[in-house]
Amino acid sequence: MKTNKITTLLIGFTIVANAQAPKQASTFTQKSNEAVYSKLNFDDTADFTDAKRGFIATLPDGKIVSKTGNVAVNLNDFAFIKGKSPATANPALWRQAQLNNINGLFKITNGVYQVRSLDIANISFIETKTGYVVIDALTIGEASTAAYELVKKHVANKPILAVIVTHTHGDHYGGIEGLVSAEDIKSGKVKFITPKGFYEEAVSENVLLGNVMRRRAGYQFGLGLEKSATGQVDVGLGKPFLSGGSSSLLQPNFEVEKTGQKITIDGLDLVFQLTPNSEAPAELTVFAPAQKVFFSAEIASHTYHNVLTPRGAKTRDAKAWAGYIDEAIDLFGDKTEFIVPSHTWPVYGHDKGITFLEKQRDLYKYVHDQTVHLANKGLNKDEIAEEIKLPAELSKEWYNRDFYGTVKHNAKATYQFYLGWWDGNPADYDKLPQVEAAKKYVEWFGGEETALKKATESYQKGEYRWVAEVLKHVIFANPENVPAKNLQADAFEQIAYQSESGIWRDLYLSGAKELREGVIVPKNPINRAAGFLASLTPEAIFDYLSITVDGNKAAGKEISLRFVFPELNKNILVYLKNGVLHQSQTRVNDKAEFTLAISKAKFVELLTNPENARTILFSEGVIFEGDPLKFRELAGVFEPANPYWNIVTP
Ligand SMILES: [Zn+2]
């Protein structure tokens, strides 16, 4: 909503003039990173061979310009990632970052092509007699168009007959309109295939929780970071360009209902496997029998994935996840020669592919089983995270490393999945809120000065995790304490430099940057809001509005409004009662104080441009009756979300 933008301007620009720059690696960090070289097999370069295999071409200048004119993707930004890792990066992550730098159009086997690393995710093209079936649509339309252009130029100029979106995450569906038009999907001319429940789940995640997840995703994907040896290098899954471009969510016209379901498109046979609540609430994998290709979506990739993504989401079911990989081996294993994940590069060869699937399966199952095992022994989630170590036969495989998800945070996620956030100790059950507790801690530490002095000593001993924890109290007791913020930033930074996980690196570096400079506001955020609201049903819009209600303002008010959407033949009674905004299509004839007949498009306009309310309400086709003050009164209980809420300070 418009009001969000105003809030953004107000809170956004608090950049401190003399903010500290990123520091170099400490001797502790240098040693920790150097040790990685002896722990893992850097002589094994098979991944580089596979990632380069079948290369055809890439973007000549490495750039994709968005419709609004900014450079949304610049592959040259990551050209600094080459050779031996700098002391400020974990060597294993640096290696993964080099692999994810390999970009362009690749031929996997006859009739199967993939464009990689023009976006965080991959896009695959299967050639049919007269066109292409596309798997996944990238984040922004500008990137999917660029990928399709490469295919048209270097393979064959043919139309897209179908788009399969494997799951509900924006990096797989957002760019669909760069490939095909919304009209062609609506008319059925182009098939848009998704797992069942796709649309509802995508809406629920992105609309209801959109604000908080976007802010946290900014940390996870390091959106405000420089791309450099002391900044962003990779998120483990790929490169997070995410600076501008257009994205939309469309309704599918074909939903896959069950595992084993087959479809033939222009002579191309495909078989689907549904994998709900694995990496996404609605997800599928695809097998192309004639081509012997298994498209594994995100249930198997060249990294350990997230059982719970740090941006926040419903916790995923690790046991089911392992089960789906096992099921895929049963269903498609015999006939598979190529495994093509939606992120990272393919696995070539049958035997290698089966080993890859088995070891990915056992990675998820091992951490799941051991978490439950240790929970039953009475360890809490932090203790379990410290305790679990993968067996060497799993941990030595590059694709099982912590590049994206980590053993530590996935163990905590599994604990939470079964047992919730609490560990059973009453001392942790009703803790003081963080600011109140922080003030007491600092008082008991003997004041800020003493706390900072002790924290400095710990920092000099390389105890970065402890420094980060203890200084949180000082900063939350007094957010104006610049030396405390700078020292916590330094500790975050060293943790980041040592992290094998790209997203751990990003979230610690983002925290460090905001401690030094204040809240980071991205320059060219992806334009989702308008297109997104327009793609919602009125019911979903009212669901969204109900979570924007400020309960305190709504308390004691009773207001009923009737909305008529003539083109949808839909009447909805919306009423505020007991501090809650309800909607009903069964009680639509109950008394309403105000009735508004309006097209959905104009209603969306009203929500996104409330300052033009008068013009919209008095425009052609809009009819209202009753007391307009009631409409205004209802509008008054909505509170716009703050998109750039403080994270590292209170
Ligand atoms: Zn993805």
From TrEMBL:
Keyword Ribonucleoprotein: no
Residues spanning the signal sequence: 1-19
UniProt GO MF annotations: linear primary-alkylsulfatase activity; metal ion binding; protein dimerization activity
Domain of life: Bacteria
Matching Pfam families: Alkyl_sulf_C, Alkyl_sulf_dimr, Lactamase_B
Classification via InterPro entries: Alkyl/aryl-sulf_dimr_sf, Alkyl_sulf_C, Alkyl_sulf_dimr, Bact_Alkyl/Aryl-Sulfatase, Bds1/SdsA1_MBL-fold, Metallo-B-lactamas, RibonucZ/Hydroxyglut_hydro, SCP2_sterol-bd_dom_sf
UniProt-recorded name of the protein: Alkyl/aryl-sulfatase
Ranges for domain Metallo-beta-lactamase: 120-343
Keywords: Hydrolase, Metal-binding, Signal, Zinc
Alphabetized CDD domains for the sequence: arylsulfatase_Sdsa1-like_MBL-fold (cd07710)
Biological classification of the source: Bacteria, Pseudomonadati, Bacteroidota, Flavobacteriia, Flavobacteriales
GO biological process: dodecyl sulfate metabolic process
